[in-house]
Amino acid sequence: MKAIVNVYLKEGVLDPQGKAAHHALGSLGFDNVSDVRIGKQIILTLKATDKAAVEAEVKEMTETLLANTVIEDYSIEISE
Amino acid sequence: MKAIVNVYLKEGVLDPQGKAAHHALGSLGFDNVSDVRIGKQIILTLKATDKAAVEAEVKEMTETLLANTVIEDYSIEISE
Asked: Looking at the complex, does the CB of residue B37 fall below 8 Å from at least one CB of chain A?
């Protein structure tokens, strides 16, 4: 099974990488952009086959290692 | 409008960050994981309202700045 974990900074947390990209896009003439936020997308391939068990395990992995839940939020999608 | 750009390394390109996360998950006892790939998720907020125009513009931004198309692939989703 595959699990996609999207990890992004919480609202209100400064995102310097996003700010830099925003600025660079402006310099290149893309004036339509009003905000840029940059997060991580983690794609896990797992051997297990039970969707509910995989979801619980991936949640545990995310909270233990993949995301810093003090400043980051995350979402998890499980697919075959 | 919002645009979500997912940028990930092409198949076959070594992903050291993913390998490190995979190894760390193994050390923590998560033995079910057979592969980890880590990419970027870029969330753009745009002032324009025409979906087709936004999609074309975001594609140009991605190819110019946000992704390195030599080693990275990307996908774009546009939402209201």
From this structure: yes
The structural domains of chain A, ordered by start, are: 2-79 (3.30.1280.10)
Does position B44 have pLDDT exceeding 90, yes or no? yes
Per-residue pLDDT reduced to its tens digit, A58-72: 999 999 999 999 999
Say which residues have a Cβ less than 8 Å from residue B52's Cβ, sequence separation at least 6.
none
Question: CB of B10 within 8 A of CB of B72?
Answer: yes
CB spacing of A65 vs B21 below 8 angstroms: yes
B7-23: average pLDDT: 96
**C-beta atoms of A40 and B45 within 8 A:** no
